[in-house]
Write the structure tokens for this entry.
Amino acid sequence: MNITLWGTRGSLPSAGPDTVRYGGNTSCVEVRSEDGTLVVLDAGTGIRRLNATVEPELKRVYILLTHLHMDHIQGFGFFGPLFRPDLEVHVFGPPSTTHDLRTRLTKYLSPPLFPVRLRDLPARLALHDVPLGGFEVDGLHVDCNLVTHPGPTVGYRLTERGRTLVYIPDHEPALGASHVPRSPQWTSGYDLAVGSDLLIHDSQYTMAEYAERAGWGHSAMQHAAAVAAMAGVKRLVTFHHDPTHSDDLLDNLVEELRGTSRLPFELTPGQEGMAFHLS
Amino acid sequence: MPQRDIEIILMRQLASYLIVPIFVVDTEGVMLFYNEPAEALLGRQFDEAGEMPMREWTTIFQPRDENNAPLPPDGLPLVIALRRRVPAQRRIRITGLDGVARHLEIVAFPLQGQGNRMLGAAAMFWEVDSKQ
């Protein structure tokens, strides 16, 4: 399985001289299975850069949305394959308790917010309310579960030949908890993350910022590290960086975390363009 | 040990912030959590009591109806909410584990998630005498 980060920023695209290394595009991760299956995790603005990697001969693409906040769908209409009539595009995402994925996604992908309607996209588009539990996308097994974040939000666990990628870009396991992590039973995201090779996890805030923004649905880097340690992951990739955080600040936060405790996993600050291989 | 459903985790977190006594059970009726205000009425801290199967919590508090007649499990609002998947309300009498008899008003409701997944049930309760 090959993984490439095309957008690592949270909340708002943040292009500028202070965000060159970590990147300013919002959440989008490319996953390629060994047989070439393309799975796109979220459709933030990073999806535009992914366009260039999609082969003309590809017949099918899977887009797995964690939720429908704007920073995770803003790039959807700019995904080139949606304009190829020969391509089958399967989009999975969480329904609400009263509306299916199509109804929810159409609220953004229709005028006046977007000029092209979903139904007018040339690709053969199939929208699926993501099933909680397991399902298959070609050669990959996907597990999906709800996680703590405002509105229906899921995380994904992708497995191929025993190697696992877990993607939880928006997640607040510390919400209402006196300490993090609590115990596996009472920690959001634990079942998804446990024993994974690579965990891409929300690390939006500093601890001081989290104290002022509890309930907004995100984690401090320390929370992500605590969940990763409890779940026994091999590598944690920090993700969904706050739009106000510069490259220098993010470097400092990572070094601070490395310095305060002996981490039982490899800590990798998520940067746009970064690639990983699991085999 | 597997993680609990997110709705149950959030229910516990919410309960831990409220001053209304709350009792949460899973689909089998196992009591998973009660909050600090409930501890005062049930007569034992949750950390001491731990999780409790339905057969235990439906009897250990000696539930009785308003006429002091023993109340079978099927008459308890939380059991009704769990088994019939409907809200239920009733006044009952119990004896806390501290030995004190109490008169409670109970409102119970099923916890059902997306896709009609049954997750358990919760009960909120008040001591009647303290409100009248």
Notes: The mean pLDDT of chain B is 93. Chain B touches chain A at residues 1-7, 9-10, 12-14, 16-17, 113-115, 117 (CB under 8 Å). The first helix of chain B runs from residue 6 to 15.
